[in-house]
Amino acid sequence: MEIYSAAQLMEYIQHIGFLPLLDSGICGYSAEDVVADDCRYVVLPDGGWDWPLWKWKGPIVTEGGCVYGKFFAGKAGFISKQWWSDFCNYRRSTHPVPSEGTIEDAILMTLREHGSLITRELRAACGFTGPKMRSRFDNYVTRLQMGCHIVTEDFVYPRDKHNREYGWGWSLLTTPERLFGNEACHAGCPPEESLERMLDHFRKVLPTATEQQLLRILK
Fold first, then answer.
1. DSSP state of 183
2. Which helix (H) or strand (E) holds 72?
3. CA-to-CA distance for 80 and 65, rounded, in angstroms?
4. C-alpha angle with apex 71: 63 to 216, nearest 5 degrees?
5. Which secondary structure element, helix H or strand E, spans residue 202, and what is its range?
6. pLDDT in tens, 51-76
7. pLDDT (0 to 100) of residue 42
């Protein structure tokens, strides 16, 4: 399979349900693996770069019925909204709501108060402004994304003097409840049942993957 557009990748995500952006440890199973060569990262002769896949993330998140965040072993990827409730149901059973008074609780409360913030704004609002605080803060946010407590709403890019977007962009973070509503985050069944549903689905779409590889994606 070779994918040439954001629209084609949206369709593929709806079919497969779960798709890491980059290397997943399973051969052929990532967005980078299924896009055409022309859509992968390339360094331009002038020293710049082009990466269509990277630029597709925003439209896929805002238009494609997909959820995006660091869900897979701390790495980013997409989940179709069809599977979000089961994924959220199971993952929150292994990564529960942060205890009151913890740093993760403070981060989550701050984000809820503001609705949505780009990462650096959230970091500043939470007081992580000292030296070497960025990586520490990012680790907390990654854990909250792994627990399905924070997702990416969109991507925000700086603009040059000609009003053209440039750079890698910033994640606009929010809570899934704010983005999709409370019902979308509840599967109405025990977490173990959600896990088994997802495993059954994975066995069909990734028949050559081992059980250990599938569990690593889901846990």
1. G
2. strand 66-72
3. 6
4. 135
5. helix 191-205
6. 999 999 999 999 988 999 999 999 99
7. 83
Amino acid at 39: C
Rounded Cα gap, residues 127 and 164, in angstroms? 31
In percent, how much of the chain has pLDDT > 90? Answer: 83
**CA-CA distances (angstroms) from residue 22 to 30, 85, 110, 184, 186?**
5, 23, 30, 26, 28
What is the pLDDT confidence band of residue 162, given thresholds at 50, 70 and 90? confident
- Whether the pLDDT of residue 47 is over 80: the answer is no
Hunting for tokens 């990416």 — which residue is that?
A: 152
Give burial (CB, 10 Å; 0-12/13-18/19+) of 64. Answer: buried
Residue 218's nearest CA partner among 91, 92, 121 is 91
DSSP-derived secondary structure letter, 42? E
Residue 7: closest CA among 41, 42, 39: 39
> According to the model, what pLDDT value does residue 43 have?
80
Return all residues near 50 (Cβ < 8 A) that are at least 6 apart: 41, 42, 44
Contact 156, 118 (CB under 8 A): yes
Distance CA 214, CA 199 (A): 7
What percent of the chain shows pLDDT beyond 70?
100
The CA-atom distances, in angstroms, between 156 and each of 44, 52, 59, 127 are 23, 16, 12, 22
Average pLDDT, the chain: 94
